[in-house]
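Re: export button greyed out
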Amino acid sequence: MIESINPATLEVIGKVDETPVEKIDEIFKNSRVAQKKWAKIPLKERARRVVKVNEVISTQFDEISLIISQEVGKPPNEAFVSEVYGVADSTFNYYTNVIDILGGEEQIPLGFYESLDKRSFIERKPIGVICVIGPYNYPFTIPFQQIVQSLMAGNSVVFKPSSETVLTGKRIQEILDEIDLPENLVQTVYGSGSKVGNPLIDNADKVIFTGSTATGKRIMQRGANTLTEVDLELGGKSAMIVFPDANIERAVLAARWGCFTNAGQVCASVKRLYLHEKIYDAFIDKLVESTKKLKQDIPTKPNVDVGAMINEEQLNWVEKMVKTGIEEGATVLIGGRRNPDLKGYFYEPTIMIAKNNEMRVVQEEIFGPVLVVLKFKDDKEVIEMVNDNQYGLTSSVWTDDIEFGKKIAEEIDTGSVMVNEVVYTFALAPTPWGGTKNSGIGRTHGKLGFYEVSRPLHINIDEYKEPDLWWMPYDKDYDEIIENFKNIASSLVVKDKYE
Ligand code: NAD
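Workaround output, generated via the alternate export path:
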């Protein structure tokens, strides 16, 4: 039995039965049967059926938001806008585009070989059984979108939610059970990664994993045994760079929301704030003042901005990292402690001035409501500081000069760079999502996301009626043919091809 605990009140809010490890092989066997049936259904019909999830979700907006809120510790309205709305919007407005992206044949020009009546094209096929392993911080929108995209592409799914958010995981399964899908097309496995992780990886054709970098590396290592493909969406340490010409009022509010939404437990949260020296003092004053106004409390109470963290372990880690920061010379401007008035896992919104870019609090992911602030003088310095980090998920550049912002964006080594926005591009289903360096491998969402859940089948058609020129026998005629080939090859040295 896995208990779900409300991290704000510490009450047990529900339970699910753990999936016995010995049942996992059978789950995959059934999944393969379902996948074969599903893949035979035309793309358009698959899309028509999957998009029905929105009808189910739309009857339970408040209920789902409340489950997420109680399980993760975030305000229900935040859960709605960042999770429930995200699933409905992406399913309806983007994932149904599967027909344009995966349907049809992509013709490939073959040059010389076309003169021999040969042609090639690519069709996209399902991969098979995809195992979606989800994190606790966005337990609805992250796995649900990955499941929808996988199904649209003709795969079956075995889904493992985080053990912290089993009730949200169960609700995803229940929603999918209400629409017309083959039996066992989506199945949920409940259990800790250490128990069920290996059999899931061993059985799956592909794992789409979202979680910490350490776990992601373990999954990739295990996947090597069976050459199970992996898509890894891992940790982050997103930087926000503010230049003097930026809209400071908006940037202050963006930094505040970008760091403290979901109590800072966001892979893409603003975790490092780089301020130009000309606006440094004024920006910090405004940010601290506006952070003081945030209301932290049990998130189901009215108008709460910042809720709880997920568990004692994560809270202890945040405490430890802030302490380490102070020992290394950081100055805490606000927060820097557990909230003494609340018995759940609450850590106060915290802003720290870092001494330098090398400190652990600047380099490592804290994954809590802690913002570290640094000063910079010029573009070159800030680009170096931002890129000097093991993570590369997202970043943002703040300036009124869009061309300049774009130029800086091109120098930053992260999967996405926003100019004058923070965090939110996960919500843009048409755009690719994923990171560089220790932030992961592969891309979910967008066209590239559809490519992650499908494989290219290259078909070559030959309508040439004669034997091919390069076939045996290697006789005298063949010598002549080879001479002709040499002539052709010589003509391929075109110096001005790119001029
Ligand atoms: P986690 O790595 O602890 O757990 C993620 C999932 O992996 C859980 O379902 C867990 O049960 C499972 N798991 C653990 N060990 C496993 C194993 N050996 N085999 C298979 N599965 C295993 O991560 P978390 O604490 O749930 O999430 C927080 C982390 O996720 C942060 O680092 C955050 O930055 C990252 N994250 C990244 C993204 C992204 O899109 N890049 C999004 C959300 C969260």
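The radius of gyration is 26 Å. The button fix ships in the next patch.
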